[in-house]
Design brief:
This protein has a single domain, classed as Sandwich (Jelly Rolls), CATH 2.60.120. It has three helices and 14 strands. The strands form two sheets. Strands 1, 4, 5, 7, 8, 12 and 14 form a seven-stranded antiparallel sheet that branches. Strands 2-3-6-13-9-10-11 form a seven-stranded antiparallel sheet. It is globular and about 50 Å long.
Amino acid sequence: MKFATFLFGFLPLAPMLTAGPLPCIPGTLASYIALGVSGCAVGNIEFVNFGYSSKAGGGATEIPPELIQINPVLGVPAAASLAFSAKWQVSGGQSQESLIRYTVIRTEPHASGSLTLTLGLSQAGQRGVVVVRENTSVGDLQVYLACGQNCRSKTTDTVDFTPVPGEFRVVNQVRLKSTTGTSSLDGFTALVNLCPPCV
């Protein structure tokens, strides 16, 4: 009789044990890394297996994952973005780099998709550069602010792809460098849109 009671008490919990990942909520990159293979979801797009590495030169400080904030945003009908923010900053003769890795999983079939990378508020010192690259198996993107005699910038980049794979790996690389003056970045946004024709 105890076994039957246990079994019937367990049955209502079974759907919760097989349910998909929890919704993504604002947090630090460290908290997203702690999610491991379970990850989290924004709408019908899952983000799993977060990883991170960093390096710095010339006396610049390395940015730890606890100081990188992530704000997830749901787009309609099948888009999701992760806004990454931190105090990336270097002075003359310094460099700084952050590598943020994660996997994107689609939970519903889609015929085509697009990725958009947007540079946040940034400044570059004399002969300074602020670059964010996104490398994926479905396409590569880059946004930047570079200053020498003159400054040039590209604040948004988009790539379209078809078909939409079941999952793909993303590596976001943030790199800052400055010869003189200060180069800084407050953040960037990575958008995954699995239904561009719907917008």
